[in-house]
Write a structure and sequence with these properties.
heterodimer; A: 325 residues; alpha/beta; TIM Barrel; 3-stranded antiparallel sheet; globular; B: 312 residues
């Protein structure tokens, strides 16, 4: 199975290549991709150099253009697609049907991958995208169990890529407006979720309060580690009992299931984290690369070492395991 | 001033919540008999486990609505992951004599070449996407609630030949998950949920730890605490060529809500007075129109005209 690794900066990109990534995915420094964070992503020149570096090392480059085109400003996305094609990206990762149609028509030779943001969660949905836009690979939403994936794989006419490590969307990806409900900025339209520009922390007595827009997302008593106020991982009151209503502050780790994922028909394993630093990328990529070819016992030891890097140091296998529902 | 003929019509959206069979049936009977809506979208849209609650009543509801001259549209599930869910949509597409409203990509694929509608849970953010869907058979698109008016205007202008609807009343669908937060909040998981979402016919409030009303759970779906209320915006929406306004059922007098929107569209009632009456008919939720004005969705933007009035 291929290992698909994130890069938010040219430095992280080189680390991922050096650590043995089969492919690195990245985006332009604008709203055309779903990690449109300050200080992240690539200029055209940086991407040209990155792709050349990757090619010299036998690594592929995937370019994510996975936000939805703003009405009237489609040219921004079309230009990004044209530039990525001209720079010889190995694949474009797309979510918007209008953009998929544009790429399929104007660049029929360009390899097209379906972003997780497109929310293609079943056989008929995936085959629609293969038939309509000649998609070669689908990144599955984090809504399926491994058994679901095994059932879907033989019925579709493209490759499967799944997220195995890093941040975890609780909601079906590309279909969530929680962030824009609270802040006016959303993954689909702006490439951001729970943006830092709308985050505030304030001390109230012994508690640290985290806020997103006008809303309290969590309160941390003294001694409890305070996390980032990602909306769906906040603590809320339902019928007067406070709890993590949607999901605890955990991250995804299903590397212990890679044999099952392989048997289910998965071609590529994806690591989340374009917002992460180069040291994180280097550590995670090299460890997971080793884990892929290690014996089960060695693999367990390698994966244990990685736990410390995970958000809140707590992990989940998410929807891949049926009880999560 | 009345603009009948060019004035937008009203569509009653599908009931997103789990109402028991008789409540669901009686709601639609009353809509058939009394509400000034042209189209009614019916069918379970949120969770396939709920289907059996409405199935025994589908035929009589369709009959009553059609006898009253309403166009009936069948809604598909918005998140499809199981084989039986796939099968159900395939059968619906193969057998239905009614127009189908697609709410996920599988329905979009299966409906290729047949006239169909697109629901607000499909991501249509621009005119090229609308035109692509039209080339495959879509004749009507209800745009996602997240869209600002500037996008609505541009899409309607650049995708001629398609009827566009805008989500004008109701708690806004914001997210859907494989996990059921509603069941989870009552100590269950999705697979043994015992239909606890049926205890909350208008959803289960999620408050912040500072007691701010924030979101509402509806099974696997999360909706806004605020109620979308585009009333002061109807003149602009009609002028830009929107064909219909969608009213999303809440547990309140939806006949009165429909009457209110119709009266504003017909120029019989001012928007300001309608907003006052709407708060009275559905007091459970504060009103919002932030998405329409390119603000946070929970925001309420008072009309410039109101402010001008206040200052005059």
């Amino acid at each position: 199975m291929e290992l698909i690794c994130p890069a938010g900066t040219p430095a992280a990109f080189r680390e991922a290549v050096d650590a043995g990534a089969n492919a690195v995915y990245c985006g332009f420094r604008d709203e055309t991709n779903a990690r449109n964070f300050p200080g992240l992503n690539f200029s055209r020149d940086e991407l040209r150099e990155a792709i050349a570096y990757a090619r010299r090392h036998g690594t592929q480059t995937f370019v994510a253009l996975n936000t939805f085109m703003r009405a009237g400003d489609e040219e921004i996305w079309y230009r990004a697609a044209a530039d990525a094609v001209a720079l010889k990206a190995d694949a474009l990762i797309l979510a918007d049907f209008g953009l998929m149609a544009h790429v399929a028509e104007h660049y029929p030779q360009q390899r097209l991958h379906v972003s997780v943001q497109a929310s293609a969660s079943n056989v008929d949905a995936i085959n629609f995208l293969v038939d309509a836009f000649h998609a070669k690979r689908v990144v599955l939403p984090r809504t399926l169990t491994i058994a679901d994936i095994a059932r879907i794989a033989p019925q579709i006419r493209c490759e499967i890529e799944v997220f195995v490590f890093g941040g975890l969307c609780v909601m079906a990806e590309g279909r969530c407006s929680l962030s824009s409900y609270a802040t006016g900025k959303s993954p689909n339209m702006n490439g951001v979720c729970s943006p830092a520009s709308h985050v505030r922390y304030r001390q109230e007595g012994k508690e640290l309060v985290s806020e997103l827009g006008d809303y309290t997302i969590n309160r941390f008593p003294a001694g409890e580690a305070a996390g980032y106020p990602t909306l769906c991982k906040g603590r809320f009151d339902i019928a007067d009992s406070p709890a993590y209503a949607f999901e605890d502050p955990v991250s995804l780790d299903v590397m212990s299931e890679i044999d099952a994922l392989s048997a289910a028909g998965v071609s590529a394993l994806k690591i989340e984290g374009r917002q992460r630093g180069k040291a994180y990328v280097a550590e995670v990529v090299s460890t997971l690369k080793k884990a892929l070819s290690a014996s089960p016992a060695q693999r367990t030891a390698l994966l244990t070492r990685l736990r410390g890097l995970s958000e809140g140091q707590k992990t989940t296998s998410g929807a891949y395991e049926k009880r999560w529902r | 001033m009345s603009h009948h003929g060019t004035s937008p019509s009203l569509t009653m959206g599908p009931v997103y919540y789990l109402w028991d069979g008789p409540k669901w049936r009686d709601f639609h009977f009353r809509i058939a008999d009394e509400a000034p809506v042209d189209r009614v979208v019916i069918g379970e849209t949120v969770c396939s486990k709920r289907q059996h609650f409405i199935e025994p009543h589908l035929a009589e509801v369709i009959e009553r609505l059609e006898a009253a001259g309403k166009t009936v549209v069948l809604s598909t599930l918005s998140l499809v992951t199981l084989e039986r869910e796939n099968r159900q949509i395939r059968e619906l597409v193969a057998d239905s004599e009614h127009m189908i409203e697609a709410n996920d990509l599988s329905a979009l694929g299966l409906l290729n070449g047949k006239p169909h509608d697109i629901g607000p849970l499909v991501n249509v953010y621009n005119a090229p996407t609308a035109r692509l869907l039209a080339s495959r058979g879509a004749t009507r698109i209800c745009l996602p609630p997240e869209l600002p008016f500037t996008s609505v205007e541009t899409i309607v202008a650049d995708a001629p030949g398609i009827a566009f609807e805008v989500f004008a009343f109701g708690r806004m669908p914001l997210a859907i998950s494989a996990r059921c937060a509603h069941a989870r909040s009552k100590g269950k998981i999705k697979d043994n949920c015992q239909f606890v979402c049926g205890d909350d016919p208008d959803g289960l409030p999620v408050k912040t730890l500072d007691r701010q009303s924030f979101l509402v759970l509806n099974g696997v779906q999360t909706v806004s605490h605020t109620c979308q209320a585009l009333l002061g915006e109807l003149v602009d929406l009609a002028a830009c060529g929107v064909s219909a306004l969608r009213l999303s059922p809440q547990d309140c007098d939806m006949v009165a809500i429909a009457g209110l929107y119709r009266a504003v569209l017909d120029g019989m009632l001012g928007a300001d007075e309608a907003i006052v009456q709407l708060r009275d008919i559905y007091p459970a939720a504060p009103l919002s129109n932030g998405f329409h004005h390119a603000r946070e969705g929970a925001a309420w933007v008072a009309r410039a005209r109101d402010i001008a009035h206040g200052g005059a």
